[in-house]
Design goal:
This protein is α+β, with helices and mostly antiparallel strands and about 220 residues long. The protein has eight helices and seven strands; from the N terminus they run H-H-H-H-E-E-E-E-H-E-H-E-E-H-H. The mean pLDDT is about 90.
Amino acid sequence: MKNDYQLGLKIHQLLKEQNLENPVNFNQIEQWDNPEYLCMIKEKYCELLTLIGLADTLLDGSKTAHRILTMLLQERFSGLDYHNFPSFNTTANTFNYQEPLIAENIIFQSTCEHHLVAIKGSAIIAYQPQNHIVGLKKLNQILHFFAARPQLQERLTRQVFVVLQHLLQSENIAIVIKAQHDCMNNLNVTNDATWHVSSQFGGIFNSDKNLKQHILQRI
């Protein structure tokens, strides 16, 4: 996948202006490629393991810290680093395609911002082309980028919606997310069967009630 850091910076500014950016210290995230900074994080994690009494039961606490750090920075939280923002090149809609394009069953995994446990689910993303069209995999990539960070489902839904409206230069965007939250098994709340659905509809997807209902039924 090709990335576009300069485009990512523009999206970062857009989200800040709309109060949709994640509440994290991006100055510290810029240090993720600093070996000394990463070494300090690993040492702190080893200290945490020791303080809660686990380090002595592990073969090597530093290896565990390294594995956790790699998983978080390269996978689970990689969407906080705008160097990883996917390139997004549109092409002219020369053949004048006017019907909605709907991508279903986009499987994703995110991380609960409050408990740092998994959010797992699927999404539907739809848009109606106007002057531009885009490769369909780009819809998936935008969702996966913003899912790869500590998240709230509501914010994730809004981020993908607003960013796609901006990138596609169209109000005609729809997104529905259906997810399960592992934190539902924490704090004396146990309900593995609960699904949470969030949605955002713009343009024709909001004004055309039949089209809106059609998409909602597909989730």
